[in-house]
């Protein structure tokens, strides 16, 4: 009785310490696409950081807007100076929870992540379908979602309205490794 | 007369096209740094007043020195305070503890990592 109870405690302790760990992505990739008949715009940010608390299933993302790379310098200028106003709002953040997440499942699972995305001073509740691949405690999160320019108080001058799509396609890919705080 | 108008029109069109499509991206490695300071110093400024530090440093070319506390594929961390990412695979030659001076563009402060971020960097010494 005592021995098995002790063994159970040890195993339980091991399991608990295994789970209350955080994983971090330091060079997450986020890219967005705007398709119009006038022109297609694409931008990529490879410096996005994110932390997941595996036990709680919570996720936080921090994205510096100035780090987006555009094909054309002029697009970058418009983006930072007029649309996003990155000198006033240098970052976009996301805080949310992975619904029904089981950190122990190996291989692929598809889950919904629900939370608040904040950009250009505007906070929006969003839900994103995400593919989570667990490969020996390194996690790969990826997905696509759609977001609307007008939701974020972004002012596009009438002259350029045809160049920027109303709905923007956002792709993300984050690779998480164990984080020793 | 008409020929003159046509030629002017053509030249303007070429200039506008060039401006819109071929504006050169900034070459940070060739720009002069607007300020030179230590990694710790810039970190402290962002920690104390992020909005002010953002106004002062965002998008500026900074010359910075610090000791290498961490090395990854494309970036190093200086003084556990600033993450510096490079244009090329220059990180391969650094050693932990080495004092280096770099020049790069300030992208902002990452709250999750608690690091100031610099990109498009080149090694000065």
Radius of gyration of chain B: 20 Å
How many separate domains of chain A? Answer: 1
Shape of chain A: elongated
Number of helices of chain B: 3
The computed structural class of chain B is: alpha/beta
CATH T-level fold name of chain B: OB fold (Dihydrolipoamide Acetyltransferase, E2P)
* Number of DSSP E strands of chain A: 9
Largest sheet of chain A: 8 strands, antiparallel, barrel
The average pLDDT of chain B is: 89
Strand content of chain A: over 45%
Question: Terminal Cα separation of chain B, in Å?
Answer: 60 Å
CATH fold annotation of chain A: Lipocalin
Structure description:
The complex is a heterodimer of chains A (181) and B (125). Chain A is an alpha+beta fold. Chain A has a single domain, classed as Lipocalin (Beta Barrel), CATH 2.40.128. Helices cover 16% and strands 53% of the residues of chain A. Chain A is built from two helices and nine strands; from the N terminus they run H-E-E-E-E-H-E-E-E-E-E. Chain A has helices spanning 2-19, 73-83; strands spanning 22-35, 40-53, 58-64, 69-70, 91-98, 107-119, 122-135, 138-148, 167-179. Chain A has an eight-stranded antiparallel beta barrel with strand order 1-2-3-5-6-7-8-9. In chain A, a hairpin with an 8-residue loop joins strand 5 (91-98) and strand 6 (107-119). The two termini of chain A are 38 Å apart. The relative contact order of chain A is 0.20. Chain B has 125 residues and is of the alpha/beta class. Chain B has one domain (28-123): OB fold (Dihydrolipoamide Acetyltransferase, E2P) (Beta Barrel), CATH 2.40.50. Chain B has helices at residues 2-22, 39-48, 50-57; strands at 35-38, 61-71, 75-78, 82-86, 99-110, 115-123. Chain B has a five-stranded mixed barrel with strand order 2-3-4-6-5. In chain B, strand 3 and strand 4 form a beta hairpin. The termini of chain B are far apart. The mean pLDDT of chain B is 89. The chains are: A alpha+beta (181), B alpha/beta (125). At the A-B interface, strand 1, strand 2, strand 3 and helix 2 of A face helix 1 and strand 5 of B.
